[in-house]
């Protein structure tokens, strides 16, 4: 595999002895799992259409008089209706779960194979194993959750009750291996990051004089 890192053309593959391992380390990449539910009770304006007697000239409801309008019903037959303006009460809810990387970017769930660990457990596993620092705060993670599921309807007139329930805020770690190689003939360097559970290559980048 390491010879393939430096292949430009098929016939320029370096010899095994020309590739030197510069670095091999294991670390834990942190991810934040945040999930919850958004609940909203609100009121909005409504128009209620009532079908009335086709012979009616006026309809009075609670002291208010309405003039029936000619319409066609669902079967296409002529009829008369009145339109009442009112206000209706409605309930809306949504829920979701999201995975964020350590700087707050959303990560597709299928990309991860993480092993849940308490933060203080890492030092007990191996003093040489390190973890990357989490740059996003709990408040920022909750704010991200709200931005994805807390959607007020555009026609909401009055907000009666609005709640964002956070059911999950978990810090998990993905064991990751970082390997750095150097092509001794060209000086070119390549860095691999490999999923410590599946062995899948997460990233591969090339540079000169990284170390």
Brief digest:
By secondary structure, the protein is mainly beta. Helices cover 8% and strands 53% of the residues.
Question: What is the total tally of β strands?
Answer: 9
Percent of residues in β-strands? over 45%
* Rg (CA only): 31 Å
Structural class: mainly beta
**Ranges with pLDDT <50 over ≥5 residues?**
116-125
Order of helices and strands: EEEEEHEHEEE
Mean pLDDT: 83
- The first-to-last residue Cα distance is 21 Å
- What spatial form do the alpha-carbon principal axes imply? elongated
Major sheet, described briefly?
Answer: 7 strands, mixed
Helical amount: under 10%
Number of helices: 2
Whole-number total of structural domains: 2
Structure write-up:
This protein is mainly β and 211 residues long. The chain has two domains: 4-41 and 90-208, no CATH class; 42-89, no CATH class. The chain has two helices and nine strands; from the N terminus they run βββββαβαβββ. The strands form two sheets. Strands 1, 4, 5, 6, 7, 8 and 9 form a seven-stranded mixed β-sheet that branches. A two-stranded antiparallel ribbon has the order 2-3. A hairpin with a 2-residue loop joins β2 (59-61) and β3.
Task: Map the helices and strands.
Layout: E1 19-52, E2 59-61, E3 64-66, E4 69-72, E5 78-100, H1 121-125, E6 130-131, H2 138-149, E7 158-183, E8 188-195, E9 201-208
Parallel strand pairs: 1-6
Antiparallel strand pairs: 1-5, 1-7, 2-3, 4-5, 7-8, 8-9
């Amino acid at each position: 595999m390491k010879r393939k890192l430096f292949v430009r053309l098929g016939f320029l593959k370096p010899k095994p002895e020309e590739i030197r391992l510069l670095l091999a380390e294991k670390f834990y990449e942190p991810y934040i799992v945040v999930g919850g539910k958004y609940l909203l009770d609100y009121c909005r304006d409504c128009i209620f259409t009532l079908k009335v007697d086709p012979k009616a000239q006026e309809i009075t409801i609670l002291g208010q008089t309405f003039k029936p309008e000619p319409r066609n019903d669902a079967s296409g037959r002529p009829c008369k209706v009145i339109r009442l303006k009112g206000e209706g009460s409605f309930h809306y809810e949504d829920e979701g779960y999201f995975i964020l990387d350590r700087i707050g970017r959303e990560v597709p769930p299928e990309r991860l194979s993480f092993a849940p660990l308490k933060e203080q457990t890492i030092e007990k596993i191996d003093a040489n194993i390190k973890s990357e620092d989490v740059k996003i705060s709990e408040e920022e993670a909750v704010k991200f959750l709200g931005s994805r599921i807390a959607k007020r309807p555009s026609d909401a007139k009055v907000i009666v009750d609005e709640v964002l329930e956070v059911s999950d805020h978990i810090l998990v770690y993905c064991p990751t291996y970082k390997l750095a190689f150097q092509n001794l003939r060209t000086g070119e360097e390549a860095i691999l990051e490999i999923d410590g559970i599946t062995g899948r290559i997460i990233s591969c980048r090339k540079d000169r004089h990284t170390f």
